[in-house]
TrEMBL record:
Keywords: Coiled coil, Nucleus. It comes from Ascaris lumbricoides. Residues 84-135 form the Leucine zipper with capping helix domain. This is Meiotic nuclear division protein 1 homolog. InterPro entries: LZ3wCH, Mnd1_HTH.
């Protein structure tokens, strides 16, 4: 540790007091191994272990990405049948009713003017109830 506290400030510009804390954090995170041999404490890290950890993390990332895609598809499917979708369908149905009412009365008006038919005869010929006010 003493050697590390001497080398780190010179080569990497790290404050000497923080070398011990940083080393302990690396040991706690499993990035550096620590073993006490007699009175000597030895610290080491193998690049192959870091490569394995990276490969494991990449594999986990790919799995999580796949899971995210699946969950997004499920969410999209649920959005098609959720409360918002029902509200949209109801709104579309109301708009269609209004358009149908408008179209019925427009056609009746056009037929009355074009053919000179009174409304009662027109209703009878097209089986339109005489008391029909609006389609509901």
């Amino acid at each position: 540790m003493k050697e590390l506290e001497k080398i780190a400030p010179k080569q990497k510009g790290i404050v000497a007091q923080s070398v011990r804390e940083i080393t302990q954090l690396l040991v706690d995170e499993g990035l550096v191994e620590c073993e006490k041999i007699g009175t000597f404490v030895c610290y080491w890290a193998f690049p192959s272990k870091a490569a394995l950890t990276r490969a494991e993390l990449l594999s986990r990332f790919a799995d999580l990405k796949t899971k995210e895609t699946t969950l997004k598809k499920t969410l999209d499917e649920l959005a098609l049948s959720g409360p918002e979708a029902i509200a949209r369908i109801n709104k579309s149905a109301d708009e269609a009713k209004e358009a149908a009412n408008h179209n019925i009365f427009s056609i009746k008006k056009w037929c009355k003017t074009k053919f000179g038919i009174d409304e009662k005869t027109l209703n009878e010929q097209f089986d339109i109830p005489s008391d029909m006010d609006y389609v509901e």
